[in-house]
Amino acid sequence: MARKKTSKKQGFSFENMPMLELKSNVKFKDAKASDRLKDRHYVAAALIQCLQDGDADAFKEILGSYLDVVNKSNFSKKTDIPERTLYRMVSDEGNPTLDNIARVVHALCA
Q1: Among 70, 47, 68, 72, which Cα is nearest to 57's?
Q2: Which of 26, 42, 47, 103 is the most exposed place for a label (fewest CB within 10 A)?
Q3: Where are the alpha helices (H) located in the chain, listed in sequence order?
Q4: What's this model's pTM, rounded to 2 decimal places?
Q5: What is the pLDDT of residue 16?
Q6: Positive or negative CA dihedral for 55, 58, 59, 60?
């Protein structure tokens, strides 16, 4: 018995999208995500929001991105959490303890 094809490609392509033109008097500024991630108060607010929403995966992703742009040794000393534990916290299988989460948030808010 021949297999039936059950899905079709959507045919979507960015090449076929119409270009959006800005008004001539509009000014915009380049933004770098790494600059925003260096702001510890911004990161702390995002982590607290993740905790309020119950989104552990987003918490780990934001913390992992923050660790990529800061000095990990200094942050490890500030939180009193070994670097290896910080990396385990943000891994896919990581399950940070409440104590470690509290230390991270406290270090970012202080």
Answers
A1: 47
A2: 26
A3: 33-37, 40-53, 56-69, 72-79, 83-90, 98-109
A4: 0.68
A5: 75
A6: positive
